[in-house]
Amino acid sequence: MQMLTTLPEMDRLTQFANSLADATDVMAMTFFRKPLDIEAKADDSPVTQADRAIEEEMRRQITEAFPSHGILGEEQEATRLEASSLWVIDPIDGTKSFLSGMPTFGTLIACLTEGRPDLGVISIPPTAERWVGQRGKPTLLNGTPCQTSAKTQLADAILYTTSPDSFDAAGLAQFETLSKRAALRRFGGDCYGYGLLASGHVDLLLEMSLQPYDYMALVPVIEGAGGVITDWEGRPLTLKSEGKIIAAASAPLHAEALTALRRNDTIGKP
């Protein structure tokens, strides 16, 4: 009797992550630019019924498909953190953009194996753009391979950060240092900026105060497109990282930016 072939496990996880993103895209757009109940969390960041409803659905689908897997999300308590496979999810990355009608928010989905981010999805519902990174394979934008820019020097780079409000005084000074050396700087974007980096439109991103659900999905996407993403010390990102993130289009650009950060690791001058 002929045996049926099955998808390799990582391909199965990727297929599931895409179907999960399909569902969350629809949900997000039913709430977008509609009246919302906005509450302040313990850290004063906003949360809406959309964030909570979408994460609840994501958790339901993950648990149904992979009951032994753990889940770490933004809005609910983590479950089975000791599991070898862990989903790290953010139902709406960019809640401030979402509730103010800006179409730059997205859903982030990562699957970690023994703490390593092997799969990452950045899905942007308003623009119908989705970046999927799978370790060892090229990053795909809506099914087509994409690549970071060829920029290798800070002087030629477009530098982005979501908001200067996320930096402390020392971090803001470091961002200002990079800004002065970069070709130009822009603000906003949330996770969308990392998709733009993967597609070659943005060259460098610097952020701090991020949580694992903000950055884990970004790692396979950026690396699979040819970029580099680490903490501000150049170390690989893990669940225990401090939340200071630097992502660059190329290794030389990443190295130059890290050097600038290290030379100005207090309220420094260029």
List the helices and strands and how they pair.
Blueprint lengths: L8 H23 L6 E3 L5 E3 H17 L4 E4 L11 E9 L1 H5 L6 E8 L2 E9 L4 E6 L5 E2 L2 E2 L12 E4 L7 H13 L2 E4 L4 H7 L5 E4 L4 H4 L2 H7 L3 E4 L13 E4 L2 H13 L7
Q: What structural category do the secondary elements indicate?
A: alpha+beta
Order of helices and strands: HEEHEEHEEEEEEHEHEHHEEH
Sheet with the most strands, sense and barrel status: 7 strands, mixed
Q: Level of helix content?
A: 25-40%
CATH topology of the largest domain: Fructose-1,6-Bisphosphatase, Chain A, domain 1
> Approximately how much beta-strand content do the residues carry?
15-25%
Strand order of the largest sheet: 3-4-5-6-7-8-9
CATH level-1 class of the largest domain: Alpha Beta
Provide the gyration radius in Å.
Answer: 18 Å
CATH level-four homologous superfamily name of the largest domain: Fructose-1,6-Bisphosphatase, subunit A, domain 1
Low-confidence parts lasting 5 or more residues at pLDDT below 50?
1-5, 266-270
| 3D shape | globular
CATH architecture identity of the largest domain: 2-Layer Sandwich
Count of distinct structural domains: 2
The total of helices stands at 8
Number of strands: 14
What value does the average pLDDT take? 92
Distance between the termini: 71 Å
